[in-house]
What we know:
This protein is an alpha+beta fold. The chain is built from four helices and 14 strands.
Amino acid sequence: MARSETALTREEMMHFRTQGYLGPYPLCSAAEMAALRPAIEQVLETDPPDSKNRVHNRHLDSRVIYDLATHPEILNRMVNLYGTDLLLWRTNFFVKYKGTRAIPWHQDFNYWPLEPPIIVSAWIAIDASTKENGNLQLIPGSHRKIIPHVKATPDVQFQEMADAGYYDPDQLIDLEMQPGEFILFNERTLHHSKANNSNLRRIGLAVRAIIPIVNVLKYDSKDHGLQVIHGEDAMGFNRLTSPPKKADRG
Length: 250
Ligand SMILES: O=C(O)CCC(=O)C(=O)O
């Protein structure tokens, strides 16, 4: 496989394997993200064609979001870790204003209709993400075991959360990020974020990519399909769709 300009070192690849995450890395500068932010905000203020949800899968109707999600700084690193063939499954914005509830500790694969559940996520800081406004926190190495999930408490955003008896929150690390930085993590890396108790908005964009052997068991909407973002889809298990055209909304 050709090594890209942003090829990971052997140490970085081993870090991802043993710790379950990598980064932060710069996708663009904070100034470049500031220039892009009005277009991102406009997408978030507009209903998508399927009118379902403004924060999910906007890479399907916005070229700005698609280009962000498939930026070479992300894609080249994903290719180094997972091989040349990659499909974009989902994107999710996580928008936290003052008072937005915490995201509980969880392993993503607990919730997802994928078989086998192999996913790499990139989480891109659209705004600065700091301890003040509820940055991501994760537990290095936690991807090596499967943690049971139980009914979530009402103070958090999800219906289910990791069973607190199965991990040690003292092992967490803070991933503070400047706008334009991103991290990578896998489907079992235990992570969460606290409530935002500050006046500083915190928007992150999570990008979920899979390899072609992964079968999507349930689609998010009738318009939902996957895009081949690198290499090819030699398996043909999943419904494919095209990237939005550059002239499209957003
Ligand atoms: O942005 C957050 O606070 C949580 C993100 C998250 O849970 C995810 O990307 O899977």
